[in-house]
Amino acid sequence: MLSFLFISKKIYIDVLHMSGLEVNKILASIILAILVVTVIGHLGDIIVDTDHHDMEETAYKIDVPETDKSLPGEAPKEEIIEPISLLLASASLEKGGKLFKKCSACHNYEKDSANKVGPNLWNLINRPKANVEGFAYSKALAEYGGEWSYEELAEFLYKPKKFVKGTKMNFAGLKKVQDRANIVLFLREQAENPVPLP
Ligand code: HEC
Q: How far apart are the C-alpha atoms of 92 and 89, rounded to whole Å?
């Protein structure tokens, strides 16, 4: 402790004995050192260009495949779409009508009514697919072939984009089997001679 005080005192005396010129020299070199550090810092910024976010645009987007949620060692889960046939007899026409609100932004169902974003759905059951006159179907649905049977219609409504890959019907689907039965029963009614239930 004593020696520390002694050294401090000596430095103090040394500084006092320094000429004004020497003090100026020291100050000048401190300022120079600060300047050099600042300039180098800015140079670094200019070279690396940290303020611009062009990186975001040039970055590549990687499509990550849907993860399979099954446990290791377990077979991947197949999506099982429950059939509606057994439910149709006890399905609710009223609930089906209410559910149609999900479709009515894009579809009419009355006879001779106009096509909207989607085709008119009058007389749909057992009607050939993609056969409403004057409606511009997607290639995918136009080439699908066959008629709208009860089960095919229900499967389509489960997840339209899965049943007809490339369809332009933008609708996520009806996941509940009871909902599909109700709405298919409702659509069945929209015909002069409703097709007998399966
Ligand atoms: C956002 C609009 C939209 C909604 C909502 C929508 N659809 Fe569609 N739907 C379409 C379009 C567009 C097509 C034509 C698809 C194509 O050409 O690929 C279509 C096609 C169909 C077809 C095939 C008709 C044919 O002539 O072959 C059926 C059946 C159908 N929709 C039923 C429904 C039902 C039932 C709902 C409600 C649960 C629904 N859609 C909801 C737009 C919609």
A: 9
